[in-house]
Amino acid sequence: MQDKHLHIISFDVPYPPNYGGVIDVFYKIKNLHEKGVKIHLHCIEYPGRERTDELNKYCEEVHYYPRKTGMKSAFSLRPYIVSSRRSTEMLERILEDNHPILFEGLHSCYFLADKRLKGRFKIYRESNIEHQYYYNLFKVCKNLFSKIYFLGASCKLRMYQRVLKHSNMMFCVSEKDTSYLQEHFPDNKVIHMPSFHPNNVLDVMDGRGEYALYHGNIEVPENTHAAVYLINEVFDDIDIPLVIAGMNPPERIKKMVKGNDNISIICNPEDEEMFDLIRKAHVNILVTFQATGLKLKLLNVLHQGRFCLVNDKMLNGTGLDDLCHIGNDTASLKKRLKELFENDFTGDDVSRREKVLRELYSNKMNAERLIELVWE
Prior knowledge:
With 376 residues, the protein is an alpha/beta fold. Helix content is 40%, strand content 17%. It is built from 15 helices and 13 strands. The protein folds into two domains: 5-197 and 362-374, Glycogen Phosphorylase B (Rossmann fold, 3-Layer(aba) Sandwich), CATH 3.40.50; 212-359, Rossmann fold. The strands form two sheets. The chain has a seven-stranded parallel β-sheet, with helices on both faces.
């Protein structure tokens, strides 16, 4: 049997897998490797993320390219997140063979329409409808300079999205995003392929916990907005402890909870501490004001935590509605919280969750499906 080789262009170094996009990239690489795919990984380096030998365990070769963050990228007609991830050296390496190419996110698509790649099998991995994501960041951001940047980026990304017509296949993380791209690119093969993730088995405690947990990368404007909403409007007058945990919470969040005995913040917890917080919480509450992509922290919570309370936008065509409790405004979230804290999480809840997650979000099954689709 002929070896299966795959180029993967990653927008960032996908290790450690500690935020949404790179989680999908890393666990996709790991699961494809276990199925015998020989991966040629191309990483765009980003400040704060180091080169690592860990990736060599799963890849035939790993190459790193510096992100070009200068004025030429900033004033390019292409979106900044795309133009700053160009590399002639990377393209020259990819042109040395005829293997399929997987472009991770719109960020990595600088060469998707390049004439030198005409005839190559090109796959686009969608993680967000990027112009919608940036427009929502524009709406929730408080900093004027950042608002201007997010609005300009949204406009550029909306126009640049047309480059996707040059892909042979698109893999989308949610059913909603799949429908969007099918509508805009009717001549392309657009397929729902859920995100890969670190959870192969459920590790959920039954019984009850003592607090509600909100977690995420708090410095991201979307998550900052959600944390402020929970502090000011949901947990302002109910006797249920809230723990906010995550990366780099802004100072204004810390000041908001200072002196509030009912709300605490845990800054930059290590992975094991975060998993422990998720497992011991009675309710993991996840709200978002952006109905884009698949929130990977939702998958983590469903594999590791007890009750999961969300709003509709967090579900966004994931097929996970029956495993979550839903509240779409302040009153309904407070009502649901009080109800859930009166109940134990049971073995029946675990069994129902396991069945749905095994059918929709099995890494093994999705790796096999991806291989079949690319090398059919």
